[in-house]
Amino acid sequence: MIAVLGLGFVGLTVALGFAEKGVEVYGVDIDTFRADLIRNGKIPYYEPGLDDALARNINNRFHVVPDLDDVPDGVDCFFICVGSPQIRDGNADYSKTFHAIREILDSGFEDYFTIVIKTPMPPGTMNKVIVPYFKSCAVNLGEDFGVAYNPEFMREGKCWDDFINPSRIVLGVNNERDEKIVSKYYKQFDAPVVSVSYTTAEFIRYMSSTLLATMVSYSNEMAQAAKAIGDIDIAQAFKIEQMDRRWEENTMKGYVYPGCGYGGISLPKDTKDFVCLAESCGADMPLLESVINVNNKVPIQICDEIAAKVPVDKKIGILGLTFKEGSGDVRNSASARIIDRLLQIGYTQIYAYDPIANDDYAAEYGQNINYCFSMKELCDTCDVVVIATPWRQFKTVGEYAKGKPVIDCRYMLDA
Predict the structure, then answer these.
(1) 181: Cβ contacts below 8 Å, ≥ 6 apart
(2) Which of these, 78, 123, 203, 320, has the minimum number of CB atoms within 10 Å of its CB?
(3) CA 377, CA 355: separation in Å to the nearest integer?
(4) Which of left, alpha, beta for 282 (phi over 0: left; psi -120 to 50: alpha)?
(5) Partners of 80 in the beta sheet?
(6) How far apart are CA 227 and CA 409, in angstroms?
(7) Cα-to-chain-centroid distance, residue 96
(8) Strand order in the sheet with 406-408
(9) Largest interatomic CA distance in the chain
(10) Are 386 and 306 in contact (CB under 8 A)?
(11) pLDDT (tens place) for every residue of the chain, 415 residues total
């Protein structure tokens, strides 16, 4: 049996994934509204695969309980999947993680257990922050319980598949007992389980995120260079580059392709956090700083292109509000940055449509724009259409735009 604290994208996927593998799972979330939705068999956000997994496992092997007092004896792993801390000036707020730890320590479990932290944390956090926090609680770390770090590599929109079919499982541990306890839950997964030090595990997570962010910004920088040079079919050039057999058949191609920049929560946060951490330790990070700068410039460059083609009194339609196709997440959405910029330079008639995220986007940003309920409605209403998120159905935009200009920021129509 395990318990999962925090039922957001990561926590709910972890809970359902282990339940799918036959583990008895108890889920706890301080957001009672979200917990009630899940308990009643509803997913509070868009994530393909989770709805079916929840239907199969709720009240079967997966139980949502009000708090840890309702978790039975016998649990030997507590997975902490709460919100990750944001680093500013080398400091971070770990209060959510501390709260979860304190809840576990106060739960009264007597048998030895392992607290497994999955929340993304910069390299060095376990040794410099988490372990000292345990010591400050006057508890017997290593005797009554242990702690491990288990980073996740799940992509929003593909969380379920990434967890059920992982490429690798990384365990940050400092003793064989915790390694044995945690690794037994991953034996049914067809992937190598690698045990390393706390800091190595933390570093692997950030190295993965910053590499992906670098490829996205590299691609956008090359696309801008191609525009400046002229007479280059950008979509075709990137597709031919991806024919290189060294890429084989993998999803890295999605990162080496131009668009509106990276968004969501992981890549922006991990990249900024890692730069901040490294610089606070005395390292110079010009490459990653450039990655961030390129990403910040892309929406401005897109808006400059729009402004050069579209008079300010025209109606502009934005297709797509999530940060990528296949996800309902609107955080750090390129669409939001594009719309902000358009509003700043004087466009007042902006319309938007997303297949799943209109309401979430409106609640997150509160921008003074209009929302449409279909691609057809947006195309009928607007003078110009801008593709900001590459939802597959947007490939048919030409059928609805009927000759109106379509600005393809994702290079998907020629792909």
Answers:
(1) 76, 77, 113, 114, 146
(2) 203
(3) 12
(4) left
(5) 5, 117
(6) 13
(7) 18
(8) 370-371, 350-353, 316-319, 384-387, 406-408
(9) 71
(10) yes
(11) 999 999 998 999 999 999 999 999 999 999 999 999 999 999 988 899 999 999 999 999 999 999 999 999 889 999 999 977 666 655 677 889 999 999 999 988 889 999 999 988 889 999 999 999 998 998 888 888 999 999 999 988 899 999 999 999 999 999 999 999 999 999 999 999 999 999 999 999 999 999 999 999 999 999 988 988 899 999 999 999 888 887 776 667 778 889 999 999 889 988 998 888 888 888 888 889 999 999 999 999 999 999 999 999 999 999 999 999 989 999 999 999 999 999 999 999 999 999 999 999 999 999 999 999 999 999 999 999 999 999 999 999 999 999 999 999 999 997 6
Is the CB of residue 392 less than 8 Å from the CB of residue 413?
no
All structural domains of the chain? 2-196 (3.40.50.720), 232-408 (3.40.50.720)
Cα 398 from Cα 392, distance rounded (Å): 13
Q: Report which residue type is found at 33.
A: F
The token pair at 109 is 């479990």
Q: 408 phi and psi, to 5 degrees?
A: -95, 90
Token digits for 208?
A: 């993965």
